[in-house]
Amino acid sequence: MNNIRVILIWFFFLFIISVFSTDLVTAEPVIILEIEDPAGDDYGPGTYIYPGHEAFSEEGLFDIRYFSILDLGEQYEFNFLFEKIIDPWHSKYGFSLPLIELYIGRKGMGSSELFREGANVSLDYQYLWSTMLKISGWWVRAYKPEDRMNREDDLWDVENNPADLKDVLVDVKENNIRVVIDKEVIGELKGSHIYILIGCYDPFGADNFRDISKAPSPWYFYDTSDKNMKYAPRVLDIILPDGMDQKEVLGDFEDGYPVITPVKIDSSSNSFTYLLFILLVLILLVIAFFIMNNKTPLSNNK
């Protein structure tokens, strides 16, 4: 009889632990990366001026202010908070102008070259990428380095592209673009690094980046410097590691494309939720031990 009682008690506590563990792990998203970016720096190397067309008449349209990644369990949530989001061309997701590229990888695995020429920047050869996410107001696409050989997505078809992600959630609220993607598309992010590039979407531009001009233009960004434009970046805003200056990084293009350094994601990223779960398990095990020995932590032996 005592043995049956012990077994039932153990089953009860194992059930409680499993219920609480599922609850605790999935109840709250876990922030694995969040970064704030300075305001008013969507000018590339500091010398770019918006195109003259009325669609670009407001300020802050490419100025990313905050970026975060949340672990939702089976999915990742990416948040891109801009100074201002408008939709002059009535896109599918509610933002016509920003073009977002994320190059994600782990040290020693993947490629150091851009997926396609367009952004006019170089990636740090020490930090390779294995997945690239490309996000516009009409689609979200995922690429691997080996997909460079597939030229089907060069066809001008915004509705049907082999790289399009079908099971993706994109919504815009209060100048924040929220993108939720299955983990299997990206892989484990803890311990990885990520390049965050913001450009202006142009369906006819090189790799969908709007170009830079040496003269004022209704459709192109105008560079006010006297530098040679051969290696001028088409990136308007970036998120860099602490201590790095965007003007210095993107302004270094006289002899070659500017080299971008990625942001690192801590491999030990954790949350109070998991610590609470471990503590709960230990408490339940202690209680179970005392119950099985016909005593409680507060009982007195006489």
Short description:
With 302 residues, the protein is α+β, with helices and mostly antiparallel strands. It is built from four helices and 16 strands.
Describe the model.
The chain is built from 4 helices and 16 strands. With 302 residues, the protein is of the alpha+beta class. It folds into 2 domains: 44 residues, no CATH class; 233 residues, Sandwich (Immunoglobulin-like), CATH 2.60.40. Strands 5, 7, 8, 11, 14 and 16 form a 6-stranded antiparallel beta sheet that branches. A 5-stranded antiparallel beta sheet has the order 1-3-4-10-9.
Topology:
Elements: H1 2-27, E1 30-36, E2 48-49, E3 64-71, E4 75-82, E5 98-105, E6 122-123, E7 131-135, E8 140-143, E9 168-173, E10 176-182, H2 183-186, E11 193-206, E12 212-213, E13 221-223, E14 237-239, H3 246-250, E15 259-260, E16 263-264, H4 272-292
Parallel strand pairs: 6-15, 12-13
Antiparallel strand pairs: 1-3, 2-13, 3-4, 4-10, 5-7, 5-11, 7-8, 9-10, 11-14, 11-16
Key descriptive features of the protein:
elongated; Immunoglobulin-like; alpha+beta; 6-stranded antiparallel sheet; 302 residues; 27% strand; 16 strands; 4 helices
